[in-house]
């Protein structure tokens, strides 16, 4: 036998996916912060967590599709100041979808077709919740509607909603539509709720709180309706109200029969018979018909167990009623400090949210370095004797680029030395080029060629780096590598040659 419902579901889902090519597509986990308007629908891929939080108003228009193990959260549990307005032609949830707002706000979810095969929930203390789908309302998964103020409007198509899963109402709406299927409707704090049994109704109603519920069954009941009532307590009776007949003031016009083997209770009012499956174990002395149009049943000696088609909802407890508040916090900034000569380098990594090219928010990391200037020691000379000869040693310093804390081309101090025999004494000199001044030492030595020996000199200039402290994402730094040669024959003329080499580089922050 063909499963027409399954075929219908798969064809509809395929058609829906084809139509959603230009919608807001969550193919990676992301969260919007602040008020948003989405006009072209939403898709959430498998395994992806998507959401909207910290807003005054989120408006979503268009079809919504959530894949297996995908999750869409709109709002934050317990946070005041946000309203939700969703209008969807077709909403298909194969994963998880949760809506939440809080005090003095509204949740509105309306459309034509609603299909839930995963977990769907509304958690709110709003002044009004509207859940209305006009053509199809199908639940094969787990749903909960939690409203702390009991202002909930829950409506389905005139042909009836289909529930083969579990729907939990916490503080029940004033009325629910007709339901077909083999599912369960769990009622918490069912103070008063109206059910029209003149339309098809085939569900298990399981009351799961210890207070006396008031269930109002209106209309002339259809003979094929199957109304199963469970959750009777040992301390509280249930109060059923049927259509009130003002002309029937005689309680003798109302009667009942109860079969303790089948658990079937028939309540006969003028012109109508209401049939309820209340289970076994009732003492008929606890069934009261003292008020026309009302029947009081219970309590039981032993509390009824929950039926097998009414498992507890994993999200309807106080700690997990809305599982995705603060689900993508932006990381706090981090600071790292490392020594650098007489000072230190500070690295700060900060984060912010921005919209990427795929229309989704993304968290961006910015790395900022605070780099101090370094002092290059001045050149100095020392003398020593070796084999009856006096030598002069010149100690000089320069900088060379290195890598440290993720920075490249960071200047580090290096040293060099040269030994000179003593004839003329070395002396200091300077060279200025490109607005940068470097110092040097002119020293002397003996050289020779193929014909004679002579005294020559050399000028050693020392590399100078101009350091820049910055708080921006990139900054320029420059290093000058000057060289100069000076040579002089004993009885000849002197010649001097200078050359400089400038290296410029950029240190960039990392993101």
UniProtKB/TrEMBL annotation:
A GO CC annotation given for this chain: extracellular region
Official protein name in the record: Hyphally-regulated cell wall protein N-terminal domain-containing protein
Gene: NCAS0G01410
Protein's cellular compartments: Secreted
Domain Hyphally-regulated cell wall protein N-terminal stretches: 16-288
Keywords from the UniProt entry: Glycoprotein, Secreted, Signal
Tagged with keyword tRNA processing: no
UniProt signal peptide: 1-23
